[in-house]
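To: structure subgroup
Subject: Chain for Friday's discussion

All,

I'm putting the inputs and outputs inline so they're searchable in the archive.
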Amino acid sequence: MQVAVDLRAHLDKITDVETRHFVEEAIKCHEAELYRSAIVMAWLGAMDVLHKYVHSHHLSAFNTEAKRVDGRWKTAKTSDDFGRMGEADFLNRIAAISVIGKNAKEELQKALGLRNGCGHPNSLKVSANKSAAHIETLLQNFFERFA
């Protein structure tokens, strides 16, 4: 399957071991024609990358923005602490502090919508092309940039 070979070509650019495992699992799911699973795994990997990047490079600004928007926000100290915030809210916070731009945020919002559709019981059908495009978009725009 040429698409999977093309996707695997991106793996060399991902140095973080945990992140690489998320991407490898997403590609394996794609190769096994488990397209919904591939989409979910790719999304989890993208969030892992963004959580780690924000924690390493923008933690103070993130906490300030999160507290400004929601006074109940308990300061994040580890990348795992970002899991206390909904994913859509996390995207809004990192866009507000210019970690990602408007177009990147829109792509991530679309990817989150697809992930939500694939991660819950429903009648959504997903093709190989949709799965590959989702993975490739996340690889090119987020894994390679932030990992």
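Points worth raising on Friday:
Residues 20 and 83 are 20 Å apart (CA to CA).
The chain has a mean pLDDT of 93.

D.
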